[in-house]
């Protein structure tokens, strides 16, 4: 059940000075909006505000300074997001060395304002390694309707994977430097080999020419 908040209409002018007076009295200035009615300026007790949707905070003290409230009809269904609370330790974590990964921490539902739960509890004690909890496994009733697919994953137990450690900048630089040095050292050997082959080929040319030359006829 949502918490009821007592509100009191604000009187007089609705400006910054009036809002300061409300805050000085320990209350929070607010505005109530809703279809079919004009906005109403009100003041509320900050202790009663536990769940609010459009708020302003004081930047230094981080205190609430203003909130906007929406008028609703108790006989019309609303769409809200509700926190999913996992209860228990899965057997896949206890005895099989897995870890519990919660994929959906909130789930969107549709229900009447009076039926909005503060959170949805689900027991995951029987979830084994590689086991999956889906929306279909959450508590269902005729008062709430899940808007997420029934096959959507809420949580599962997975194996612990080894983390791949990326090399540091110094290690990457050293690796690159070593590769460059190896390439540079190979260049003189290749060049030397090329010169040796050229010299050998040049030395064979005179012999080939002499072998191919015909002897002069005797006169």
Which helices and strands, and how do they pair?
Elements (H helix, E strand, L loop, with lengths): L6 E3 L6 H9 L3 E6 L6 E5 L9 E4 L6 E7 L7 E10 L3 H4 L4 E4 L3 E6 L7 E5 L8 E3 L10 E2 L6 E6 L10 H44 L7
Parallel strand pairs: 2-5, 6-9
Antiparallel strand pairs: 1-3, 2-3, 4-5, 6-8, 7-12, 8-11, 10-12
Report what the structure shows.
The termini are far apart. The chain is built from 3 helices and 12 strands. Helix content is 26%, strand content 28%. The chain is of the alpha+beta class and 219 residues long. Strand 4 and strand 5 (64-70) form a beta hairpin. The strands form 3 sheets. It has a 5-stranded mixed sheet. A 4-stranded mixed sheet has the order 9-6-8-11, with no helix packed on it.
Give the structure's gist in a few sentences.
The protein has helices at 16-24, 91-94, 169-212, and strands at 7-9, 28-33, 40-44, 54-57, 64-70, 78-87, 99-102, 106-111, 119-123, 132-134, 145-146, 153-158. It has 219 residues and is an alpha+beta fold.
